[in-house]
């Protein structure tokens, strides 16, 4: 079963109104916010991303590669209303395809299955996902959380935000460390892996806490 994540203004309504149109596809996430996408989707490990944009000319060149990298998805299916040839030419590849939207879910289902079949025929192995996920919280979001005041006296969210921010700061610091020899390099690679794992674990806890407390950023 192919795991699918959908981002677009109309996809949430389409899925709600016609949930059976995607058939056997496993919809692991559907939403409208890019910020929520980067915060929530990487841990869900979708195989295909369906991304709908009004104007491709307003889409940063690095956005779609960043979405693929952070999620480990095998393919991104991009729909649009207004084309922008430089972006299409720059990104079109076996992993990225384009079609004019809006896209009915029945057509989306066909295109998703076709994209996976094309990858299989091309001999591209399933993605194993990135070594680490992109940070789920921006420095601005962490800053707001660190200053959060609650009515019940629970300081878990500010404390977790401080820990996450501290780990990110340490990671950035070690990235600039001078590596004198191969032994130093191996040590810093170990630190990078362990700090990243710790950050991701704390971020998962922070996401769960924010959902439980109904805290919106």
List its salient traits.
alpha/beta; Rossmann fold; 217 residues
Task: Please explain how this structure is put together.
With 217 residues, this protein is an alpha/beta fold. The protein is built from 8 helices and 5 strands. The protein has helices at 11-17, 34-40, 63-71, 85-91, 105-121, 139-146, 156-175, 182-213, and strands at 3-7, 26-31, 48-55, 75-82, 96-100. The chain has a 5-stranded parallel beta sheet, sandwiched between helices.
Which helices and strands, and how do they pair?
Blueprint lengths: L2 E5 L3 H7 L8 E6 L2 H7 L7 E8 L7 H9 L3 E8 L2 H7 L4 E5 L4 H17 L17 H8 L9 H20 L6 H32 L4
Parallel strand pairs: 1-2, 1-3, 3-4, 4-5
Helix pairs in contact: 6-7, 7-8
N- and C-termini, Cα separation: 33 Å
CATH superfamily of the largest domain: Response regulator
Shape: globular
Radius of gyration, whole Å: 20 Å
User: What is the average of the pLDDT values?
Assistant: 86
Taken as a percent bin, the fraction of beta residues is: 5-15%
Considering DSSP H and I runs of 4 or more, what fraction of the residues is helical? 40-55%
Total number of helical segments? Answer: 8
Low-pLDDT windows of residues: 126-131
CATH architecture identity of the largest domain: 3-Layer(aba) Sandwich
Main β-sheet, spatial strand arrangement: 2-1-3-4-5
CATH uppermost class of the largest domain: Alpha Beta
SS content category: alpha/beta
Largest sheet: 5 strands, parallel
Tally of DSSP β-strands: 5
Total domains, how many? 2
